[in-house]
Design a protein that fits this description.
The strands form 3 sheets. Strands 3, 4, 5, 8, 9, 10, 13, 14 and 15 form a 9-stranded antiparallel β-sheet that branches. The protein has a 5-stranded antiparallel β-sheet with strand order 6-12-11-16-7, covered by helices on one side. A two-stranded antiparallel sheet has the order 1-2. With 342 residues, it is α+β, with helices and mostly antiparallel strands. It starts with 10 loop residues before the first helix and ends with a strand. It is globular. It has one domain. β13 and β14 form a beta hairpin. Helix content is 20%, strand content 23%. Pfam families: BURP (PF03181). This is BURP domain-containing protein. InterPro entries: BURP, BURP_dom. Keywords: Signal.
């Protein structure tokens, strides 16, 4: 599915920010987090005019429906086009090589929102699909069939905070949002917008704090408000993109933190992240070796207290465990970000 969106006019604010480093999201990151490297999961979502340097790493995939504000692509009246393409970013995990992989993406009833029960699609399209695993299996030698999805040429870029804050992000303003992006009511694209907003406005899991951030500046503010300014930002890194294959956990699994802020990329016409913080979370760096010789360094998040999750959540139905009994883990897609204390 793709969005087909006509240009929206954000010229004055966009071009002002793009040409003034003192106002750019990248400058804000550096001012708030001067010792924290920006992962490529973030730099790939910056407007080209904001990037002072381009990295060559290949650790970022394409998550969901994406927007690219492309340099030199001007709409009528000098406006900057916000062009939206479709993608299938995420992590696909399944246990049998002959199974039909099912992408478990980020959106309403996504596996990363623990209040929701698994959908019929998640449960029955392929019973062999596994996104979650147990913490006790997070060790050298464990084998998992994984697919870290391919990188797209079109990214959903961050809007500068003044622009993002000027656009409604509320279920009571959905019609206004659809109008601004020239999205036809009743279309699949309209449903994606509604679903993401609904997830962001949904109930909070007990023991967690969450916020959907619509700008990089807001992401930084949320992370630093929970963890302070002495933090690292990390994401899954994949050395070579490939189709699904068997990976083996290599030596060197490293526990990074016992509390973190995790930001999941959402499906939306511009970069929006669902960020949440929990003290009952362990973050790990996990080296992986693919059957084709490729290597990856994945970020795994393990939830040590699942007692307040929906008992019909996908993890429990797939792992055949009960809420609150054992730590439950999952790998993060390449375009998600984890903030951890240094």
């Amino acid at each position: 599915m793709e969005f087909h969106i006509l240009p929206i006019i954000i010229t004055f604010l966009m071009l002002t920010v793009a040409t003034n480093a003192a106002l750019s999201p990248e400058f804000y990151w550096k001012s708030m987090l001067p010792t924290t490297s920006m992962p490529k999961a973030i730099t790939d979502l910056l407007h080209p005019d904001w990037k002072e340097e381009k990295e060559s790493a290949v650790d970022v995939g394409n998550g969901g429906v994406n927007v690219g504000v492309e340099k030199g692509n001007q709409g009528q009246g000098g406006g900057t086009d916000v062009n939206v393409g479709g993608g299938n970013g995420g992590v696909i995990v399944h246990t049998e090589p002959k199974g039909k992989p099912v992408h478990v993406g980020v959106g309403p009833h996504s596996p990363f929102d623990y209040n929701y029960a698994a959908s019929e699609t998640q449960l029955h399209d392929d019973p062999n699909v596994v996104l979650f695993f147990l913490e006790k299996n997070l060790h050298h030698g464990t084998k998992l069939d994984l697919h870290f999805s391919q990188t797209s040429n079109l990214e959903a870029t961050f809007l500068p905070r003044p622009v993002a804050d000027s656009i409604p992000f509320s279920s009571i303003k959905v019609n206004d949002i659809l109008h601004r992006f020239s999205i036809k009511a009743g279309s699949d694209e309209a449903q994606v917008v509604k679903n993401t907003i609904s997830e962001c406005e949904g109930p909070i899991t007990i023991g967690e704090e969450k916020r959907c951030v619509t700008s990089l500046e807001s992401m930084v503010d949320f992370a630093t408000s929970k963890l302070g300014n002495n933090i690292d930002a990390i994401s899954t890194r994949v050395g070579k993109e490939s189709e699904w294959q068997q990976y083996k956990i290599a030596p060197g699994v490293k526990k990074l933190a016992e509390k973190c802020v995790v930001c999941h990329k959402e499906k939306y016409p511009y970069a929006v992240f669902y960020c949440h913080k929990s003290d009952s979370t362990n973050a790990y760096s996990v080296p992986l070796e693919g059957a084709d010789g490729s290597r990856a360094k994945a970020v795994a998040v393990c939830h040590t207290d699942t007692s307040n999750w929906n008992p019909k959540h996908l993890a429990f139905q797939l792992l055949k465990v009960q809420p609150g009994t054992v730590p439950v883990c999952h790998f993060l897609p390449q375009d998600h970000v984890v903030f951890i204390p240094k």
